[in-house]
């Protein structure tokens, strides 16, 4: 195999074929190519898996907590536009469902 030397310092970098190797004083480190198995970044694989961005509000682990500030703000806007009362006591999952209902009434949030 061919051998090329790179850099200076505590270790010498060499390549044996296509594999870079760092030669230190006591050992060598082989650097292998990084293989990705991440469905969020591998477009081809991601098409075969269900999305984790769409989840039934009933299945949310934090669905019983108070709605977020963003949910409250958007829900208040939607409620005003739809002429519906705003309920500030909704949980996260209840607020999500109510947002869906009000979006269907107002036409907001659909294919934007």
Automatic annotation (TrEMBL):
Pfam families: DUF3072
Compositional bias per record (Basic and acidic residues), positions renumbered to this chain: 89-101
Segments of skewed composition (Polar residues): 63-76
Region Disordered, annotated ranges: 36-112
Highest taxon of source: Bacteria
InterPro entries attached to this UniProt entry: DUF3072
Name of the molecule in the record: DUF3072 domain-containing protein
């Amino acid at each position: 195999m061919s051998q090329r030397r790179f850099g200076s310092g505590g270790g010498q970098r060499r390549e044996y074929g296509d594999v870079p190797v760092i030669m230190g004083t006591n050992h060598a480190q082989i650097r292998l190519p990084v293989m990705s198995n991440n469905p969020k970044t591998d477009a081809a694989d991601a098409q075969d898996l269900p999305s984790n961005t769409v989840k039934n509000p009933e299945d949310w682990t934090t669905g019983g907590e108070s709605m977020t500030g963003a949910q409250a703000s958007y829900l208040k806007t939607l409620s005003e536009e739809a002429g519906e009362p705003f309920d500030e006591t909704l949980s996260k999952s209840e607020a999500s469902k109510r947002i869906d209902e009000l979006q269907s009434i107002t036409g907001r949030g659909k294919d934007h």
